[in-house]
Specification:
Chain B: It comes from Pseudorhizobium pelagicum. Chain B: Its main location: membrane. Chain B: It is a multi-pass membrane protein. The complex is a heterodimer of chains A (322) and B (316). Chain A is mostly helical and 322 residues long. Chain A has 14 helices and no strands. Helices cover 68% and strands 0% of the residues of chain A. The model of chain B has no long low-confidence stretch (mean pLDDT 83). Chain B contains 13 helices and 2 strands. With 316 residues, chain B is mainly α. The longest helix of chain B has 36 residues. The chains are: A mainly alpha (322), B mainly alpha (316).
């Protein structure tokens, strides 16, 4: 700004500049989130990880490596210029498989969480807003689902022969179908947390004066849900979703490790560990990388969730991390 | 009280019926066919014979009718045979349940006290150094894939140091107590890690809330030492709701036990269910899953009753 400008605008700017700049709620939350150092660091780590995993295509093309091509003459190679992390028990490049596996694991986490959020919110808001018998049934169902042992249930769901419910052999074994299948079965057993949160929020909002006023003015249920309920329950849902992503990644890797999730040759961090136990004496290092990546990713996701919880909680103070 | 127990019991029974039907349908959708599994690779089996066998075993009937027959038999105590073990399923599941019971009991005996101690320590100075360290530990414990931790511990303690066995717990009852304990150390370590993370976070939150309550201030004002205030006044009050959290964690704990039993080759409920599903043993998988559900539901019910018993403010 030139001095002349400042002179002419002196009067109005002087009064306004004493007020703090106007910040939206999202700006405030973002600032609080930024003050949670661990969450910011984790977010950076996750973004970097996703970028690296997406580099799998150009990287493998550049080095001429096929992640699924086995070569028994090159088993258990130590790290080299061609194979940066060496090769596994079937002569496949470990680094490239880790990168492709990361894509699968992270994608399952995100897509399944999105699906759960949609299903959970639809059911939870309906139950909370309508109440009555639907609500009672839903709460009983979610109570049971919370208590059930999920992994045994997922194993049965994962072993279901899709041709028995009328899906052709070819499509049942296609990679997209295998991906969708694991997404759907995880969402099927784990949507209840989201539904409970959405229901609790809907019940809180349902009886507020402004919702009643809207109803009296002729607003129907759908209007109230979209305009009043959904924006008000978005923050707890965002926090819950973040933590769910971590849980889903763990569930997927457990299932794939046990052989009931995503099956080879498609690599995931979980199924890369399936054979690790047999190779524990000859090649213990193969057991380290995939698990370490699962661990770091889930931990980073959980820290981001913790940061989001902190940022969205109006009672928490900026500058304190817990 | 009695009314409450009865209503909870009837609810649990209803849940078990619904679950049994759902599982019956799901298990029927597992790959393979029971008749073909039974006579695997028998060349003299003609399609007509298979048809006759289906009729004999009632497999040509609609699923609701088959479920009805299964249910009637089950209610009379006939849960069928395991094709994998060629024994009645209950004689397979009985020892397995005992094995898992030992694993879970040992785990709880370690994870609950350590969660209380660590959570209470963390709550003494929120955001202090101790709290941050314990917080980091609980986050790490929550985020660790338990199968990976198992592999790492096997590499360290069994392969490199050679201190502890990685698998092969003998199922015979003549295994000595110490031998069995040695086999349980690594699995219990992993399961404690798996279980303790969320519990620590819960105890910490409950303790922070309790420490700001009026009765704690009164206790301090009376001149009680900080240790007495925490151990005798705060912890006891903060822990009653923990029973509910513990009850809800049983299902989760069972899931963990499945993975860990599979890795360490322990013939508990989890590994039995895993083997049954992997080897398409329809009966064993069905009854095993159902038994697991029943056990988890009963522990939930017991925990709710204990909660009401321990908290004098709650009358049922």
């Amino acid at each position: 700004m030139t001095p002349t400008n400042q002179m002419t605008q002196a009067v109005p700017t002087l009064t306004l500049s004493h007020l703090p700049p106007v910040q939206s709620i999202w700006q405030l939350r973002f600032e609080k989130f930024r003050s949670h150092r661990l969450a910011m660091f984790s977010l950076g780590f996750l973004i970097l990880l996703i970028v690296i995993c997406l580099m799998a295509w150009p990287f493998s093309a550049l080095l001429g490596i096929d992640p699924n091509k086995t070569n028994l003459l090159y088993r258990f190679q130590p790290p080299s210029a061609e194979h940066w992390l060496g090769t596994d028990d079937l002569g496949r490049d470990v680094l490239v498989r880790l990168m492709f596996g990361g894509q699968v694991s992270i994608a399952v986490g995100l897509v399944a969480t999105l699906l759960m959020a949609i299903v959970g919110v639809a059911i939870g808001v309906t139950a909370g807003f309508v109440g009555g018998r639907i609500d009672a049934v839903l709460m009983r169902v979610t109570d049971c689902m919370l208590a059930l042992p999920l992994v045994p249930l997922l194993i049965v769901l994962g072993s279901i022969d899709l041709t028995k419910i009328g899906i052709s052999q070819a499509s049942a074994t296609s990679p997209l179908f295998v991906f969708l299948r694991i997404v759907i079965i995880i969402a099927l057993v784990d949507w209840t947390t989201m539904a409970r949160i959405a229901r609790a929020g809907a019940i809180q909002i349902r009886d507020r004066d402004y919702v009643r006023a809207a109803s009296v003015s002729g607003a129907n249920g759908r209007y109230n849900v979209i305009v009043h309920v959904l924006p008000n329950i978005s923050t707890p849902l965002i926090v819950a979703s973040t933590l769910t992503v971590g849980r889903v990644i763990l569930l997927e890797s457990t299932l794939s490790f046990l052989g009931f999730g995503i099956v080879p040759p498609t690599p995931t961090w979980g199924n890369m560990l399936t054979n690790a136990q047999q190779l524990i004496i000859s090649a213990p290092h193969l057991a380290v990388y995939p698990g370490l990546l699962i661990f770091l990713t889930v931990m980073a996701v959980n820290f981001v969730g913790d940061g989001a919880r902190f940022a969205f909680d109006p009672r928490s103070e900026s500058g304190k991390s817990h | 009280m009695l009314r409450y127990v009865l209503s909870r019991l009837s609810q649990a029974v209803l849940v078990i019926f619904v679950m049994s039907f759902l599982l019956f349908v799901l298990i029927g959708l597992m790959p393979g066919d029971p008749i073909e599994n039974m006579f695997e690779g028998n060349p003299s089996l003609t399609p007509e014979l298979i048809g006759q066998m289906r009729e004999l075993y009632g497999l040509d009937q609609p699923i609701t009718l088959r479920y009805w027959h299964w249910l009637m038999a089950a209610l009379q105590g006939d849960f069928g045979y395991s094709s994998l073990y060629s024994r009645p399923v209950l004689t397979v599941l009985g020892p397995a349940l005992l094995q898992t019971g030992k694993l879970l009991a040992l785990t709880l005996m370690i994870s609950v006290p350590s969660a209380i101690i660590l959570g209470a320590l963390a709550a003494r100075k929120p955001n202090g150094l101790v709290d941050s360290a314990i917080g980091l530990f609980s986050f790490a414990a929550i985020s660790m894939p338990n199968f990976w931790v198992s592999l790492l511990l096997i590499i360290l303690f069994s392969v490199n140091l050679g201190w502890l066995p990685a698998s092969g717990l003998p199922m015979t009852s003549d295994a000595s107590f110490w031998l069995e304990l040695r086999h349980l150390i690594l699995p219990v370590m992993v399961l404690v890690m798996f279980h303790v993370g969320p519990l620590i976070r819960y105890v910490r939150a409950a303790m922070i809330e309790t420490l700001s309550a009026d009765f704690v201030r009164t206790a301090r004002a009376k001149g009680l030492s900080e240790g007495t205030v925490i151990a005798r006044h705060a912890v006891r009050n903060a822990l009653i709701p923990m029973i509910t959290v513990l009850a809800l964690s049983f299902g989760h704990l069972f899931s963990g036990a499945l993975v860990i039993e599979t890795i360490f080759g322990m013939l508990g409920m989890g590994k039995t269910i895993y083997d049954a599903v992997g080897n398409i043993d329809f009966n064993l998988a069905l009854v095993g899953l159902l038994l697991a559900t029943v056990v988890v539901l009963i522990s939930n019910l017991l925990a709710d009753l204990a909660y009401a018993y321990l908290d004098p403010r709650i009358t049922l």
